[in-house]
Amino acid sequence: MKIYEDQAVLLLYAFTALLYTPPDTVFLTGLLSTIIYITVNSKPWGPVCRGILTVLFLAAVFFYPRLFCFLPVLSYNLLLYEDRIGSVLLLLLCLYHAHLGNIPLLLAQVPGCAAAVLLKQRTSQIRSLKERYHQTRDDSRELNLLLREKNQMLLKNQDNEIYTATLKERNRIAREIHDHVGHMLSCSILMTGALRTINTDPSLGASLEQLENTLHTAMDNIRQSVHDLRDTSIDLQDTLEQLSASQTSCPVSLEYDMGNQIPSDVKCCLIAIVKEGLHNIAKHSNADRAVITLREHPGLYQLSIRDNGTLEKQSCVSGMGLHNIQDRAHALGGSMQVYRDKGFQLFITIPKERNTAL
Q: Which pairs count as long-range contacts for 80-83, CB under 8 Å and 24+ apart, including other chains?
């Protein structure tokens, strides 16, 4: 819009020519031609079309010197679009008419041409400032997006570290309970049994029996608590990485995309399936590469174990191992699919909301 404002000012300056010349057909034709030139020149049609329009306009000025009153508008456009060829042609045209004696007509356009130069410089500065502003704004948005992404990664890493520390602490507590409290309860049960054996006082028999039953109940509760702690403290990703690293028959890569809140029964099922799948690869496949992929979706868990072994050495595709895998998946309401295209693949899906009737 600033360019149109500048050209409108310069076009108004052209009307000063009416102070010393009447508005005849040549002036009106030049005015309309200038307006058309301004309008068409602003379209993104490339320098070729712009050069053709400039040459036509200069040719009209060559034959009708009175059109020099529109020289500031033409100069502004040549400077704005950095048209060097048009500027040279305009300079030659001015020298030619000066040689013909039209110097007063040319001098009358000097203030307008000076205004065109100043307006072009100011417009260029505004353009440059706008470009810098947009560039700064875009850089700021990009930086904000990068910072937001890094913050999310930091928060995710922090959550993973907290989750790992929690699992380690649960394992430590389970070991402490098993090694110390469980050991002391076992000693107490043995001592109580020994006392019952050597006891000769009938009045103490019922009390010793009740004490032994209480200790057995406490021992069972301790064992259940330790079992629950160990189940919930399983680090699925770490366990699968260890299983992948321990596979000696072929390199195994792990692609893991799971959350932290995974039920313990699902963890145990996935670990057992991966163990069985890697055992089958080592026993029945001549694969030189295997991939384990785990992904969590909004409604289900997915496990894929695939290798690039040949079918001849994977003849045991309906053995006990696959039946065990299928039974484990079905126990959690899931399913198993087997693919034998370009290798061997097990595809397991386990829904998050399971029907207990299955």
A: 80/3, 80/120, 80/123, 80/124, 81/41, 81/47, 81/50, 83/47, 83/50, 83/51, 83/54
